[in-house]
TrEMBL record:
One Pfam family in the UniProt entry: Ig_3
One Gene Ontology biological process: homophilic cell adhesion via plasma membrane adhesion molecules
Domain Ig-like as annotated: residue spans: 36-117, 122-208
UniProt keyword Plastid present: no
UniProt-recorded name of the protein: Tyrosine-protein kinase-like otk
Keyword list, A-Z: Immunoglobulin domain, Kinase, Transferase
Domain of life: Eukaryota
Gene Ontology CC, one term: axon
Keyword RNA-binding found: no
Any one GO molecular function term: cell-cell adhesion mediator activity
Gene3D superfamilies membership: Immunoglobulins
Length: 209
């Protein structure tokens, strides 16, 4: 764009005065492009959110979205397309799929496609609580979560992962941390982190022996 200017051609010949051409104007037109291109994203089930697609060129383009495999520009009542901004008023599972953004102007047409996944962020079904344990006996620290995809559960002690005696500590399928025989050195702060592609949540509790 900085090359736009007036240009003059000058011919210099030994023994003759310089000869200049008529002034010529160079106009550089901005290429039609996305600024920036939209990227694949994850939407929280039930959320009110937006997906942006912006384009520009030497003339103002019209920007619209379409969902691959669905009628052009035919949106359900909870989705609205406003010149490249796609509004979701309560995301549903059916909103997952491929979406194509199309920009049109006198310069032509460009398009780009992204993937949209619908996820349910993790939430605690049973959140761990401070627990009193007794030396020589067993105990359990409960931590259960729901989400989609199903969240993974990880435990740590004093902010160090896998800081456990594997012979006595066991993470059960439901996320509960089971201690078969409590020792005095087991006292401390325990953290339970649950996470999936939608995000993470964490809770910390004290085990008192």
């Amino acid at each position: 764009m900085s090359d736009s200017a007036d240009y003059v051609c000058e011919v210099i010949t030994n023994g003759f005065p310089p000869v200049k051409s008529e002034k010529a104007t160079l106009v550089v037109k901005e290429q039609l492009k996305f600024v920036p291109p939209p990227v694949s994203t994850r939407l929280e089930l039930g959320s009110y959110t937006k997906i942006y697609c912006k384009a520009r060129g030497s003339t103002q383009p019209v920007v619209r979205w379409m969902k691959v495999g669905h009628p052009f520009f035919d949106w359900p009542s909870h989705i609205q397309d406003d010149n490249g901004t796609l509004f979701f008023k309560g995301v549903t599972n059916e909103d997952a799929g491929k979406y194509t953004c199309i920009a049109t102007s006198s310069q032509g047409i460009i398009n780009t496609t992204i993937n949209v996944d619908v996820v349910v962020m993790p939430k605690f079904v049973i959140e761990p609580v401070d627990t009193q344990a007794y030396e020589g006996y067993s105990t359990m620290l409960h931590c259960q979560a729901s989400g989609d995809p199903m969240p993974a559960v990880q435990w740590d002690k004093n902010n160090v992962m896998d800081n456990f005696d594997q012979k006595r500590f066991h993470v059960m399928e439901n996320g509960t941390l089971y201690v078969s025989e409590v020792h005095m050195e087991d006292e401390g702060k325990y953290g339970c982190t649950v996470g999936n592609s939608g995000g993470f949540k964490r809770a910390e509790v004290n085990l008192n022996v």
